[in-house]
């Protein structure tokens, strides 16, 4: 589509890996094995958590959620990557690319927060064992899961809805999937809104959960040391 002297992009070409056939076959075999193992391991864990009554606890509930996120995260990028490694046509539509980009952002953000929630769960279980079932009730676990999904959907997807991307530059993405920074390089006009959003959300997602995890385990260690010295 053309507007004046600008040509708007309808599809991208992913150029993240070498065009050498032997290298592509090697990479294809490697990623295929990794993907199959990821599917089998996470699928087995989810199945075990569902069918085993003794594993129907908050800890295994969140562990099952983590496995589900790993499945979704891998399935959102690796199948397309496998196809591209054995194909000379590495094209992807703009809509599919933005969908993949947002899916990676949402799932990655949820996984970071989920790890912090799992650390908090262990903190409550060890430091407040008598109140554990009350504090970490199934209602609380479900609400936490819903909040994680909604929060990450809002902060990851909303910017592209409020101010949609317009692409009119080169359509070659210097990556093997639709990574947000690689896509922003191809966007037209002022992209400062997206950059600010990425910095703010990225800082919160990458700093807050690890800090929360460290504090939780410091409290756990301190509680264990107090018990041993009592």
What features would you describe in this structure?
The chain has 230 residues and is mostly helical. Helices cover 72% and strands 6% of the residues. It has helices spanning 21-51, 58-85, 94-127, 132-135, 138-162, 180-184, 192-229; strands spanning 2-3, 6-7, 11-14, 91-93, 172-173. A hairpin with a 2-residue loop joins strand 1 (2-3) and strand 2 (6-7). It is found in: Cell membrane. It is a multi-pass membrane protein. InterPro entries: GPCR_Rhodpsn (IPR000276), GPCR_Rhodpsn_7TM (IPR017452), Olfact_rcpt (IPR000725). GO terms for molecular function: G protein-coupled receptor activity; olfactory receptor activity.
Secondary structure topology:
Blueprint: E1 2-3, E2 6-7, E3 11-14, H1 21-51, H2 58-85, E4 91-93, H3 94-127, H4 132-135, H5 138-162, E5 172-173, H6 180-184, H7 192-229
Parallel strand pairs: 3-5
Antiparallel strand pairs: 1-2, 3-4
Keywords: Cell membrane, G-protein coupled receptor, Membrane, Olfaction, Receptor, Sensory transduction, Transducer, Transmembrane, Transmembrane helix
Subcellular location: Cell membrane
Pfam families: 7tm_4
Q: What can be said about the biggest beta sheet?
A: 3 strands, mixed
Sheet with most strands: strand arrangement? 4-3-5
Instruction: Specify the structural class.
Output: mainly alpha
Roughly how many Å is the radius of gyration? 22 Å
Count of domain modules: 1
Could you state the order of secondary-structure elements as H and E? EEEHHEHHHEHH
How far the N terminus sits from the C terminus, by CA atoms, comes to 75 Å
CATH structural class = Mainly Alpha
> Quick one: overall form?
globular
Please, what is the average pLDDT? 86
Judging by the overall fold, what is the CATH architecture? Answer: Up-down Bundle
CATH superfamily: Rhodopsin 7-helix transmembrane proteins
Q: Would you give the CATH topology?
A: Rhopdopsin 7-helix transmembrane proteins
Give the number of DSSP strands: 5
- Assess the beta-strand content as a share of residues: 5-15%
Helix amount, in percent? over 70%
How many individual helices? 7
Ranges with pLDDT <50 over ≥5 residues?
A: 1-5
């Amino acid at each position: 589509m053309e507007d004046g002297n600008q040509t708007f992009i309808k599809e991208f070409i992913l150029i993240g890996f070498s065009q050498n056939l032997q290298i592509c076959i090697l990479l294809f075999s490697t990623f295929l094995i990794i993907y199959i193992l990821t599917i089998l391991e996470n699928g087995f864990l989810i199945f075990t958590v569902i069918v085993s009554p003794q594993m129907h606890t908050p800890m295994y509930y969140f562990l099952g959620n983590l496995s589900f996120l790993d499945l979704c995260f891998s399935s959102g990028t690796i199948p397309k990557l496998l196809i591209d490694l054995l194909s000379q046509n590495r094209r992807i539509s703009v809509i599919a690319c933005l969908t993949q980009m947002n899916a990676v952002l949402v799932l990655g953000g949820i996984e970071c927060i989920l790890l912090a929630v799992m650390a908090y769960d262990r903190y409550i279980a060890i430091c407040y064992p008598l109140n554990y079932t009350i504090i970490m009730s199934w209602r609380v676990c479900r609400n936490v899961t819903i909040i994680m999904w909604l929060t990450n959907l809002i902060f990851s997807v909303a910017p592209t809805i409020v101010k949609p991307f317009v692409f009119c530059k080169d359509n070659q993405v210097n990556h093997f999937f639709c990574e947000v920074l690689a896509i922003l390089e191809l966007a037209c006009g002022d992209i400062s809104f997206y950059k600010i959003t990425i910095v703010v959300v990225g800082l919160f997602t990458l700093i807050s959960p690890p800090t929360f995890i460290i504090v939780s385990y410091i409290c756990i260690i301190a509680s264990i040391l107090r018990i041993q010295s009592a």
